[in-house]
Each structure stands twice: as structure tokens, then as C-alpha cells.
Design a protein that fits this description.
disordered N terminus; about 60% strand; 26-stranded antiparallel β-barrel; Lipocalin; about 5% helix; Maltoporin, Chain A; mainly beta; 4 helices; globular
């Protein structure tokens, strides 16, 4: 017999169920003596225990002598080993462990280890290495590079200009400009069955290498190598309480920075002039600390979420000032610098109904410099600098507010928009207050089959208090000069994106963007900037085994600025055009040779170009700057056995740049001794063989 249950019948059954449960007929009181529970085991719910994952090792050969290629290949060594791993362990009692390693042994390798019990606690061990390489062909006559004391050879002959230094070229030696970082950390997180979670993470980073610096004597200067030997310790700790629809957390973030070199001393390569100085000294980055305490919270109720953050912190440094070579007394042995930080953030999002949602936020940030103001005697070398100077305690306060709403017109049509406001207050600045307001709107349409598109437009305007020449720079800067981040500005922007899937195997994505910055009241400085860009991305699957992805991105930034050679109104104009093009493709062919072989090709070409033309009666070209780079990776992966796979990668980088600032001989400028040519023109090759084993 068949019958249907109507709403009344269901209501009666439900009420009867509650009544029977109250009288001892509930599920908890059911007689289960004869139930065979072993027949009801959910086989699909079983969690596989033991060890799973894969481990891989590889070794690469790098043929290039130009160390700049290591930025692409991940190693500056001729022979480069690496380790990859993705290993998981699940115990029968709930204990878990996970080991992830990527390119470990190369300059950009990482390791992440987690051990714990799900929902209770977790231990974390992590490691990361990073490296950036500038050049290994720069030249310097100084000895002791990498340390804090640079000396010239015993047979060095000083001169009034670089072309008179008779021992310059015979004393030049190449050295490496690069920075390497190694970061290691430990972490622990503990969760209770109630509402409490707590965590603590510690990390140490060591950064070593050399970077470019300048040592000066009056109007003569030498490019010198500044040593980098930094240690940064950071600690993050917090406690979190959470309920059904709320949470709050108290967090601490601390950072301690130490520099093993307090100062850098160097010989004067020129004839002693100002003060008859034969040795120079410069202070390096001082030891400092940062400590921040923050309170966060969020509450959700009936489609409305409110969150907030309150932050207090302090940055400080009290390292002794460098007085080597300074013949005057100092008012204090250390500046005892202190900067207090205060921040507050409030956000709210509410769904009014199924079609309308509104949001708003307010962000407050205050940076107060409480360093004691001292009177310092400075060395006067021209008519601009005075005999006495004071350290200036710059303060900055920022207010940000946003309000927005989105409206779902109907299925596949959505309109959203908002207003953004920002106010900056800066002490001892040419303009103490700037205010910027932006209004924006966006319309999205995806109601047509296989189409998704949106368009967004915005307009913003910035103004502020009266612009006045700073008392600290009034004798150096033109009164008509306007710094671009303080000047009045109108910004108009429009952008759009269209995505289309005409067939299942093909997806086309296209985006465009145009922005115009008009510095309305600027006579000297940046007067206009245009930013135009577009990109296209195509994905096509020829069949289930062959896939192609291709992309192209183009961006051009055109800027105009005016200057003055007479310390009055504008007398010259400059047009700057910066262009960036990036094109690439990825092709993969799977399941060759009975599904054992996979072949792939990755290719990227990028070109950046910058050109500056100056007009002052006649037009002059500053010269073209460009950088062009081709990157190719051809690879094949062969599944030798069910568990072991072999992979061979062949990588190529062809790099060429042209920058006049990097192509100056050591004695090209009479009063500046340079590092020589630092341009790059190479074709580098790397072969990497790796083996992966599935556990």
C-alpha cells in the first residue's frame, strides 16, 4: 500500500516522536542487545594509517660564470644538489606528522615539519633560504671586502682626480655583490576541547653578503662594499578564546635586530683635502627592537559580522653613536630613539536581505616619535648646511574609512560600489595634512552562458593644507616644488575583464586597465602620469593528454615632469616612458609510452624599457635603458616503476640589459671612483636530473 505524508501528518509524527522520547522511547533508550555492530562498519570512513607520500633527490649542473643567472636557476654552484619531500604519517591513536621539502639544498629551498595530534596540539619546525645575486664582475681596489675595515694597497698613489690614480687599474680585483638569507623557526600550538587555543612561534634569520655604499670626502666619493651580517630574532605568541559565533585573541609580536658591524672604515683614495682626512668612517644599520601587543575580536549574528583590532607597540634603538673621525663632542653617547605605535581597526559587514549587503571600516594608525631632541654640531662643507643641527622627531597619523554596498540585481547581474577616504597628518612636513577621497563602482555580468565579465570605474581627489617650504629644506628646494605624494592630485581609473569559454576545451581571459593621475596645481615636479595595461590568457586542451596555456601582458607608464634651472618658474620639461612586456607559454603532453612518459615546455620572455627625453629649447635623450630575458625549461618525466619516477630538466636563460649607470669605468668621472661595468649579457644553461620515489 502506498501513501503520501502531508504536512499535518509529519507534524503529528514529529510531536509523537518527542513525546515518546520523553517517556523513555528515545533512541538513547533503544534495546541494542541483538544488534550486530560489526556489520554496520563504514568502510569508506576508515582513515588510512601509516606512512604515505614521496621523496625525491636531484642534482644539477650550471654552466654559466655570470652569477646573475643564479637568480633564475636557484644556485650559484656549478654542481647543485636538492631534496624534495611530501611525507605524511597517521597513527592509529590520532598522531600525525607531515614533512614538506621543496628544493632543499638550493638557494631558494624550504622545509616544513609538523608533528602533533589533530585538534589538540602541533609542533612545527621550518627552514627557508633566499638569495639575490647582483654581480660577480664588479671591481674595487680595496682590500678586506666583506669586513668592516677597507684598506688600499700599500703602493696606492692618491690623486686629485680618478684619472690621476696611477695604481688604480693594477689594483682592481673582482668581488661579489649578493645577499643570502637563512631563516629557521620553531612553533607550538595547543588546543583544548573547550574554547581555548594558544600558540608561540620563534624564528631566527641570518642575512649575509655585501651591498653597494658610498664613502665621501667633501666633493669626492668612492663606491665601496658595505658588509651585511645581520641577525633578526622574531617571536609571535598569542591566546585565543572562541565560542559559537565569536572569538577574541591577545597577541604579541616581537623583533630584535642585531648588526655585527657597527661602523665601516675606509681609506681615502683621493688626495686629502677637506680636513686633511685620509680615513673615512660611516655608521651602519644600528641594533633595534620592535614590540607590538594586539587585541582582536569578531562577533557574528543574524547575517552581520563585526570585527576589530587594537594595537600598541614601540620601536627603539639605543646603540652608541659612531664618533670615529669626528672631532667634536656629542650631546649623548646614544640617541635612545623611541617610536610609539598605536593602531585601531573596526570592520562591519551585514547582509540586509538576499540581494543587498553593506560594509564599512575605519582604520587608525599613529606613529609618534618620542626620541629626545639633541643639539648636534655638524661639519659645514657648503653654504647650505649650518653649524648646528637637531634631530627631527617626525610623527605621522593616518585615518582611513571605507563604506560600500553590493546589490544583486538578479541572477547573473551584480552592482557594487563604495567611497574610500584617507587623511594623513605629518609633522615637520611641507604639507602637514593631506586628504584623499575616492568613489568607485563595479558592474558584473555572468548571466550569459560561458561568459563572465565586469567593468569598474573610480575617481579620486587629493588636497590638503597649505603647501609651505619646510624650514629644514627651504634654502635647498624651489618654493614651487611639489612632492608627488603630498601634491594635489586627481586620479581617474577604469578597468574591465572578460572571460569566455566558447567550448569546453578553450578558455579565453582578457583584461584592460587605464589610470590617469593629474597633479593639478604642480608647477615644479611630477605633473601627469598615465598607466595603461592589458593582458590576455588562453587555455586550450587539445585532448585529454595535451594542454596549452599562453599569456601576454603589456604595460606602459607615461610620466611628465617640469623643473627649473633658475630656482624660479619651470624652464625645462621631461617625458618618461616605461614599458614592460611579458609573454609566455606552457605546453604539456601526458601519457606517452603506455602512460609512462610526460613531456613539457615552459617559456617566458620579458622586456622592460625606459626612455627619458628632456626639453629645454632643444630635445635631449637620456639614453635607452632596457632589460631582456628569455627563460626556457624543457622537461621530461618517466615512470620507471610503479613507485619510482625519473625527471630531466634542461633550463636556459638568455639575459641582456643596458643601463648607463651600470656601465661606467672606474675613472670615467673625475671625482667618483666606481665599481666599473655591472651590465649583463649571457646565455646560461642548467641540467637537472632528479629521482622521485613514492612511499
Amino acid at each position: 500500500m502506498k501513501f503520501k505524508l502531508n504536512i499535518i501528518t509529519l507534524a503529528l509524527v514529529a510531536n509523537a516522536g518527542f513525546a515518546m522520547a520523553a517517556d523513555g522511547y528515545g533512541v538513547g533508550n533503544a534495546n541494542t542487545d541483538k544488534v550486530k555492530f560489526d556489520k554496520w562498519v563504514c568502510k569508506g570512513c576508515a582513515v588510512e594509517t601509516g606512512v604515505t607520500g614521496s621523496v625525491g633527490v636531484g642534482v644539477g649542473y650550471n654552466s654559466e660564470d655570470d652569477i646573475h643567472s643564479a637568480n633564475a636557476f636557484g644556485s650559484d654552484n656549478e654542481i647543485a644538489p636538492k631534496l624534495d619531500a611530501d611525507v605524511n604519517y597517521i597513527g592509529e591513536s590520532g598522531y600525525r606528522a607531515k614533512v614538506e621539502a621543496t628544493d632543499l639544498g638550493l638557494d631558494n629551498g624550504r622545509l616544513d615539519v609538523n608533528v602533533g595530534k589533530l585538534g589538540q596540539y602541533n609542533f612545527n619546525l621550518n627552514y627557508r633560504s633566499l638569495a639575490t645575486y647582483s654581480s660577480n664582475t664588479v671591481m674595487s681596489p680595496y682590500q678586506g671586502i666583506g669586513g668592516s675595515d677597507l684598506t688600499l694597497p700599500d703602493n696606492w698613489v692618491t690623486a686629485g682626480s680618478t684619472d690621476g690614480m696611477s695604481e688604480l687599474y693594477s689594483s682592481l680585483n673582482p668581488f661579489e655583490l649578493s645577499l643570502k638569507r637563512e631563516r629557521a623557526g620553531l612553533g607550538f600550538e595547543y588546543q583544548t576541547e573547550s574554547m581555548l587555543t594558544t600558540y608561540v612561534n620563534y624564528q631566527r634569520e641570518e642575512k649575509t653578503g655585501t651591498k653597494t655604499a658610498s664613502g665621501s670626502f667633501f666633493n669626492q666619493s668612492m663606491m665601496i662594499a658595505e658588509p651585511v651580517d645581520y641577525t633578526t630574532d622574531t617571536i609571535n605568541a598569542g591566546i585565543k578564546f572562541s565560542g559559537k559565533n565569536w572569538f577574541t585573541s591577545l597577541n604579541y609580536d616581537g623583533s630584535i635586530f642585531k648588526n655585527d658591524n657597527a661602523e665601516l672604515s675606509y681609506d681615502n683614495a683621493f688626495n686629502p683635502t677637506f680636513g686633511a682626512q685620509t680615513r673615512g668612517y660611516m655608521a651602519l644599520d644600528p641594533d633595534n627592537e620592535s614590540h607590538i601587543v594586539s587585541l582582536l575580536g569578531q562577533y557574528t549574528e543574524n547575517g552581520t559580522a563585526v570585527s576589530g583590532r587594537l594595537m600598541f607597540g614601540q620601536m627603539s634603538q639605543d646603540q652608541d653613536v659612531v664618533t670615529s673621525g669626528y672631532g667634536y663632542s656629542v650631546p649623548t653617547e646614544s640617541v635612545d630613539a623611541k617610536v610609539d605605535l598605536t593602531g585601531m581597526t573596526l570592520k562591519a559587514v551585514s547582509r540586509v536581505n538576499r540581494s543587498v549587503r553593506v560594509s564599512g571600516s575605519y582604520d587608525y594608525s599613529d606613529r609618534e616619535n618620542n626620541t629626545n631632541i639633541e643639539e648636534w654640531t655638524q661639519i659645514s662643507i657648503n653654504d647650505v648646511n649650518g653649524q648646528v643641527a637637531y634631530n627631527t622627531p617626525y610623527d605621522q597619523t593616518t585615518h582611513r574609512a571605507k563604506i560600500g554596498a553590493d546589490y544583486r540585481i538578479n541572477r547573473g547581474m551584480k552592482l557594487d560600489g563604495g567611497v574610500d577616504y584617507k587623511r594623513d597628518e605629518r609633522s615637520y612636513s611641507e604639507r602637514e595634512v593631506t586628504e584623499e577621497s575616492t568613489i568607485w563602482a563595479r558592474y558584473r555580468l555572468n548571466s550569459f552562458e560561458n561568459w563572465d565579465m565586469w567593468v569598474k570605474g573610480s575617481f579620486g581627489s587629493r588636497d590638503g593644507s597649505d603647501y609651505q617650504a619646510s624650514e629644514w629644506t627651504s634654502s635647498e628646494n624651489n618654493d614651487l616644488l611639489r612632492k608627488y605624494y603630498l601634491a594635489d592630485r586627481d586620479r581617474s581609473m577604469v578597468e574591465a575583464r572578460v572571460s569566455h569559454t566558447p567550448i569546453d576545451a578553450l578558455t579565453i581571459d582578457l583584461g584592460v586597465r587605464y589610470a590617469l593621475d593629474d597633479y593639478t596645481d604642480t608647477e615644479i615636479g611630477l605633473t601627469e602620469s598615465k598607466d595603461t595595461s592589458y593582458d590576455v590568457n588562453v587555455n586550450y586542451m587539445f585532448n585529454k593528454d595535451v594542454m596549452l596555456n599562453a599569456f601576454y601582458n603589456h604595460q606602459v607608464i607615461e610620466s611628465q615632469q617640469s623643473g627649473s634651472s633658475t630656482f624660479s618658474g619651470p624652464t625645462w620639461q621631461a617625458d618618461i616612458e616605461d614599458t614592460v612586456d611579458v609573454v609566455g607559454a606552457n605546453l604539456s603532453y601526458n601519457n606517452l609510452m603506455d602512460s609512462r612518459l610526460r613531456l613539457g615546455l615552459d617559456y617566458t620572455y620579458s622586456e622592460s624599457d625606459s626612455n627619458t627625453q628632456v626639453r629645454q629649447g632643444v630635445t635631449g635623450d637620456y639614453g635607452d635603458y632596457f632589460a631582456k630575458v628569455h627563460n626556457v625549461n624543457l622537461y621530461g618525466q618517466y615512470q620507471a616503476t610503479e613507485k619510482m619516477a625519473l625527471r630531466l630538466d634542461y633550463k636556459i636563460e638568455k639575459y641582456l640589459d643596458n643601463d648607463a649607470a651600470n656601465d661606467i669605468a672606474p675613472d670615467n668621472i673625475w671625482n667618483v671612483m666606481t665599481f666599473g661595468s655591472n651590465s649583463h649579457d649571457y646565455t646560461a644553461h642548467m641540467i637537472m636530473l632528479s629521482v622521485n620515489y613514492k612511499l
